[in-house]
Amino acid sequence: MKINIKKILPIIVLIIISTTLLFGQKNFENKNFGFSIQEPKDWIVAANKELIKNFEKLDFTDENLVKIFQNEKQFIFLTAFIKYDVNEHAGLIPKIQVSVLPQNTKDFQQFKVAITKTANNLKNFIEGYELIQEPKEIEISGIKSVYFLGKLTVKTQKGMELKSRNRILAIPYKNYFFQISFVDEEIGENSSELFDALVKTIKIGK
Question: Where are the domains of the chain?
Fold first, then answer.
């Protein structure tokens, strides 16, 4: 099984890389990977437009996918949605991030074991992280997937404590898998209802 825990961790922490901010009220779709999800209304889309543009020029064979993952340091950031402008809102901002990672497990049970191992080891790599709901099997767009829930407490440079919840979906497809992180406040602004609704809009497959 080649799902590297250390490669997955930066994504679970939800670091948004080189992006362009747009306002979204539609569906996000990436035909190359066969993924779509409804964009949360009035949220800001953090789209890696340059990467998506480059994808359109490539022939998405298995061999080329391996090269792409190598160039992108083992994961590919597809898109993210944030509720508020980071320059105008203090404190934790609810967000969603969609990434793609390589995997070559033989079947779903191996995949679930690998993701479960990752979830249980997060506390050893991320200070303040706590797993509050063990990984479980769910079905997304007709595909057996894995879901787990954790929480994280971090301190800002000004000494403020931010308490977040992080829902993780891992959806295996072909020789890669989608990892979708849903982050909101543990105490405060609760986006659970919206997140649950958006999960139902996910479609996998070309």
Answer: 5-204
Q: How far is CA 55 from CA 39, 49, 76, 129, in A?
A: 21, 10, 11, 34
What span, in angstroms and rounded, lies between the C-alpha atoms of 197 and 146?
17
Query: How many angstroms separate the CA atoms of 10 and 22, rounded?
Result: 24
Taking every pair of Cα atoms in the chain, the longest distance, rounded to a whole number of angstroms, is 48
Predicted structure pTM score: 0.79
Closest CA to 206 of 172, 173, 175, 182: 173
Q: Return the CATH architecture of domain 5-204.
A: 3-Layer(aba) Sandwich (3.40)
- Rounded to whole angstroms, the Cα distance separating 135 from 132 reads 10
Query: 8-12, 58-62, 132-136 — which is least confidently predicted?
Result: 8-12
